Amino acid sequence: MAIKDVIVLADLLGTNKKIAADIRAELERRGILATNLLSSPGAGKTSLLEQIAVRLRDTARMAVIEGDIETERDAERIRAKGVPAWQITTGGACHLEAKMIAKVLPQVPPDVEFLFIENVGNLVCPASYELGESLRIVLLSTPEGDDKPKKYPKAFTTSDVLVLTKADLLPHVPFDVEKVKAEALELNPRLRIFVVSAVTGQGVDELIAFLAGRRRELQAPHA
Amino acid sequence: MAIKDVIVLADLLGTNKKIAADIRAELERRGILATNLLSSPGAGKTSLLEQIAVRLRDTARMAVIEGDIETERDAERIRAKGVPAWQITTGGACHLEAKMIAKVLPQVPPDVEFLFIENVGNLVCPASYELGESLRIVLLSTPEGDDKPKKYPKAFTTSDVLVLTKADLLPHVPFDVEKVKAEALELNPRLRIFVVSAVTGQGVDELIAFLAGRRRELQAPHA
């Protein structure tokens, strides 16, 4: 990359970081836990959100911002669960940026407690762009293979949580859960790791309990 | 994106296209069929190349250029099959560029007939960068889901071949092969589609026969 390109990129990232900081401050002040979900295409981000929606239905208010290159498909799946969802289509861009989130925020109802932002399916680019989230989750599905953390390190080093998805497929794919846990923790010792399945429901309640705990921590300074 | 960023990007893409055209001309003159493989992380690019390596062992000479953010893992897997392989690590960049290929080319032995370039695992960015390939293959694995072509259209519209991988997992995942074929062909009617499994070997011979045919077409004009 030429020097001029590096300067332009640094400028873009710096502007993004400032907007993200503003979003984070506003959401935390409102007591909203914003979570940014990152993964490869098809790792199960939307399916996990559907599972969370069903479980939170009677106890907490959630909302979802969906990011995709094209189509309204994911937002429609979330709305079908009775959850408000806004679709951002990037029209080619490989990741969401904070300014896209800022445009949607005025539509988020004031009583929302959990705001999930599902990024474009991409294990590389989204890791470089903060969106104002208080929590970042990287998902890795068992069919993707257990060699991924070290091949795509930034998604793992910048996240707070690793969710291993599609645990129901473990009998059919070569995937060593313990190896992945060890490799991911070597990259990032503060990672919290959950093993889930959107088919059997395994691990989803534990993840929700963790998210609820993080939301309580958000509110504690204001208590 | 600001105007200055658009100009810088157009400049980068234009330079890349020129280098790619030079590479393509050289490889086609040498009778080498260069294939660029694109997919999400973990869709099975390396596993497919391992299967091709085993089958071509006694009949044709192949070589592989591996692209990854980090690690030499994929090149090591290919070398273990007795095939020359060079690893390019991009150190963060989400796709290969033609100039990276140009640097490796002098090392490719003169008797190679099939050169495979395995791009960084990413269904978005690599679609915008020609590498000098004569053939582009996009892989989609069955666990990724059958909604992907329209969500990530550019990888499908710019490819010559779609390989549906992990067919062995079809009994365990919701994936409608006919729906994907129809959607992909709607985006790109000239796509050739193969359904393969690196576990059972399904479809690999048919894909190799197609590649051999394309290589013969390359040579025809010089005959």
Features:
Rossmann fold; homodimer; about 220 residues; alpha/beta; seven-stranded parallel beta sheet
Structure notes:
Chain A is an alpha/beta fold and 223 residues long. Helices cover 40% and strands 17% of the residues of chain A. A 7-stranded parallel sheet of chain A has the order 3-2-4-1-5-6-7, with helices on both faces. In chain A, helix 1 packs parallel to helix 4. At the A-B interface, helix 1 and helix 5 of A face helix 1 and helix 5 of B.
How do the helices and strands line up, and which of them pair or pack?
2 copies of one chain form a homodimer.
Chain A: H1 3-29, E1 33-38, H2 45-56, E2 62-68, H3 73-79, E3 85-89, H4 98-104, E4 114-118, E5 135-141, H5 148-151, H6 153-157, E6 161-165, H7 177-187, E7 192-195, H8 204-219
Parallel strand pairs in A: 1-4, 1-5, 2-3, 2-4, 5-6, 6-7
Helix pairs in contact in A: 1-4
